[in-house]
């Protein structure tokens, strides 16, 4: 199964953690094109979404980014 993520929300959450797309890809163990697809509003697998969620859950928000 596949779903579309809120690309703006994903960008916001990466910024809050000081991460870029390459860092998310490495941390989530997915390819950079997969992250790019998600950031472009294209569908990604539920497994990929779970991987992104895990990374965003364990990566702390930077002070002052809220």
Order of strands across the biggest sheet?
1-2
Radius of gyration: 11 Å
In N-to-C order, the SSE pattern is EHHHEH
Q: What does the largest sheet look like?
A: 2 strands, antiparallel
In total, the number of strands is 2
What is the strand content?
Answer: 5-15%
Stretches with pLDDT under 50, minimum 5 residues: none
Helical content (DSSP H or I, runs of 4+): 55-70%
Given the helix and strand composition, which structural class is it? mainly alpha
Report the principal-axis shape: globular
Instruction: For the record, give the distance between the C-alpha atoms at the N and C termini, rounded to a whole number.
Output: 33 Å
Mean pLDDT: 95
Helix count from the secondary structure assignment: 4
Features:
single chain; about 70 residues; mainly alpha; 2 strands; globular
Could you describe the 3D structure shown?
By secondary structure, the protein is mainly alpha-helical. It contains four helices and two strands. It has helices at about 5-15, 20-30, 30-40, 45-60, and strands at about 1-5, 45. It has a two-stranded antiparallel ribbon. Helix 2 (about 20-30) crosses helix 3 (about 30-40). The longest helix has 13 residues, at about 45-60. It is globular.
Briefly characterize the structure.
Helices cover 59% and strands 9% of the residues. By secondary structure, it is mostly helical.
Which secondary structure elements does this structure contain, and how are they paired or packed?
Layout: E1 2-4, H1 7-16, H2 21-28, H3 32-39, E2 43-45, H4 46-58
